[in-house]
Amino acid sequence: MAYDIIGDIHGCCGELQTLFKKLGYYEENGLYVHDENRQLVFVGDLTDRGPESVKTIEIVYRLFKNQLALYVPGNHCNKLYRYMLGRPVQVKHGLETTVAELEALDQKERRKIYHDFMSMYDDAPLYLQLDEGKLVVAHAGIREKDIGHVNKRIKSFVLYGDTTGDFDEQGRPIRLDWARHYKGKTWVVYGHTPVKEPRWKNHTVNIDTGCVFGGKLTALRYPEMETVSVPSEQPLMEDKFKDFGD
Ligand SMILES: [Mn+2]
């Protein structure tokens, strides 16, 4: 099986549909299909900040339910899930846009979105091991020694990344550069930290090219190991991109 792994969407549904077409998928009965034996994989963070989070959930859910796509959760998915469960989460850092979209729906539509998103989240693994273990897809990455394992610490790393526990002056968690020290042969494809260009470091690729911040939406074709991007329709917010200086 070949895969098209899609980076953080954050409600940028127009760009997602443009990317599907560029990758050779076409619409059929509300689904996106490909004539070759390829499967879509979503690296998480479907919603928040962008214009169409609800529509993005629906498209990804339909693909997932029909076994046309795989999905792993991101930190924003985890928070939306906890919000839907009625847990006391802070409706900020982008969640407010998704909540506003949900509140604009009538009760029946809202119930359907809750059901669809929560059932997909419930059925998703924390991260994916594909191609006989040669490929891992994990939202914020994973350490080599943790591949094949799941516990609370690994869950926090995979969803939130390699953080110090400290925060910067804007209140954002300080993130460390795990990929720089990654020595595994397994390819790790991930997102989470917006970068201007896909970042190749050792056997890792960060495909979060900050679409919601005016960058682009990127897919990685596996096993070809080629990236395919479409430009963002959102205004550019230069300060949201991380420059690793490499
Ligand atoms: Mn993200």
UniProtKB/TrEMBL annotation:
Residues of the Calcineurin-like phosphoesterase domain: 5-199
- Reading the lineage from the top rank, the first entry is Bacteria
Which InterPro entries did the record assign? Ap4A_hydrolase, Calcineurin-like_PHP, Metallo-depent_PP-like, MPP_PrpE-like, Ser/Thr-sp_prot-phosphatase
Enumerate the transmembrane spans.
none
UniProt xrefs under NCBIfam families: PRK13625.1
Q: What is this protein called?
A: Bis(5'-nucleosyl)-tetraphosphatase PrpE
